[in-house]
Amino acid sequence: HPQLMAYLEALMIDLNYDTKQFLRVLYNTQAFQKPIVSRDIAPSEAFYFEGPLLRRMSAEQMWDSLLTLTVPDVDTRKGRDDAAVMRFAYQKYKDYSASQLVDEIERLLESSNSDSMRRQNIIRPLRNLYNVAMSPEAGRMGTQQREQKELREKLRKAQKRKRTGEAQRLRRLLQEKGLNNPALRNPGFVRAAELPSPSPAGHFIREFGGSDREQIANANDAASVPQVLSLMNGFVDNTLLPNKQSELWRTVNAAGTNNDRITILYKTLLSREPSRTEMTRSTRDMRARNDEALEDLLWVIVNSREFMFVL
Predict the structure, then answer these.
(1) Highest mean pLDDT of the ranges 109-113, 127-131, 278-282
(2) Residue 274: pLDDT above 80?
(3) H-helix or E-strand containing 310?
């Protein structure tokens, strides 16, 4: 729309290129505040912006959303480009200091007689290991893993010596710190950006239309039966629902009343509070079935269009 573009350009200049103020203007327009268009738009149809279109999250967005509910500090979890090579490099160089790693990289670069590509394949795992070792995220993860290992070892000894009180205290400490979350031990539970691309066949991301990289831009958001089955009987049922140490359940269970727990569930999953009708039905169900009702509510929300579809 040429006239609109000219006006917006003039507006940006008048605001001295202050993007925050520019967005403030856009957010207060009637066009921005129009209701969502949920009907399907035919490819041949001219669309005159009746309102923002509702789209299902991409496969990567779906995976990241579910993972954020499951593991703590998801942004600190890192994947591996080549697990086998990284394991070999780690075992060989795990006791090296940062400066020793740098020296080893330089030595291999200078001494290698192989071609450039093979030389880079030799050096890459060392460089990755150095970068990971020096990152603040790695420091936090390393501390967390060491703490988990130490507490679990103490718990094992306490159980072996039948020190019931000490064992209960250690279990409580693991729970409070979120270190007994079984999902933490799964190296594949990292953000989509940290996973190999393309994801292997059968992975959640592939099932939800993630690209197989065989053609350019062939990711899709078309619905399919495997997607329905994956949400109904896959990650949610097998990982999120039974894992009471997940980030979601720890947050929900830390709340006081049933109303608080229901509200947190809605706010976490849908970014809104439950309606009066939703709250009434949920509290009635919880009085009858306790935590089982809360699990069913989680299952229903995650399988709803409101959770899966975004602007």
Answers:
(1) 278-282
(2) yes
(3) strand 309-310
